[in-house]
Structure of tRNA pseudouridine synthase:
Amino acid sequence: MKEPTLNPESGFLRLRVDLSYDGTNFAGWAKQPDQRTLQAEIEKALAVLTQSQLATIVAGRTDAGVHAEHQVIHVDIPEKIDISNFAFRLNQLLDEDIRIKSVVYAPANFHARFTASARTYRYKIIDGARITPPLDRHDSAEWFRELDIDLMNQASSLVLGEHDFFAFCKFREGGTTIRNLLQFEWVRDEKGYAVATIKAESFRYNMVRNLVGAAVCVGEKRFEPEWMEKTLKDKVRIPDSYVFPAKGLSLIKVDYPSESEYLTRYNYYMSSTASEEPES
């Protein structure tokens, strides 16, 4: 694996690209043989505009079926390339389920992944056996039972902070499961859907959807709120059947510190367990 760098090679300039996408018909972010992926589609469009094979770096890889209202990537392009109307030109090449929101020259020491300070996700559930409106079918999951939001918030608050989230991560060889969960709260939106906002510096694979599934177990009164905290502390991995579907999950924000802190943030990631790939 190529060592991540803060600054582009001589003759190249770094771009920050902000984008959104409907993940329904993608096999996730990362390129895979014979699969339609977000990275492959974006790099193909970049190759047409720049006449170069370029590699993108993403703030957080999203899994198959996961959406993004606001994702961030960087890409190093030959400095001779004119980026006037670059976002518009990329959108002309991309299918409508990917939209480039902006393209700008990145500040010094910017790295889409390793200078990010947090990622925020939203999970949306249509509970109580209600019919899902057709326009909501892609970014919402359905649940038969009515959920108690107060109980879910009680449970979710018990797992905030820095912990070993082994119990809520799908197993992958190597790496740490210690993460700092900054926000995990539930509300009823204007349509009456149960909506979670979940924020952390970074996430392990399937961590968000595992946490949502566990909170739902509490919300339908299968377990008391303290069960989530006990599961966390006991490091008893919850069953795969608790993992909620990808389609209800959307990345809604990537936070970055002030430009003066980019180098500090990068060094923190590279010298700690947080350097692992952030994932949904």
User: Anything to note?
Assistant: The chain is about 20% helix and 25% strand. The chain has a mean pLDDT of 93. The CA atoms of residues 176 and 273 lie 6 Å apart. The radius of gyration is 19 Å.
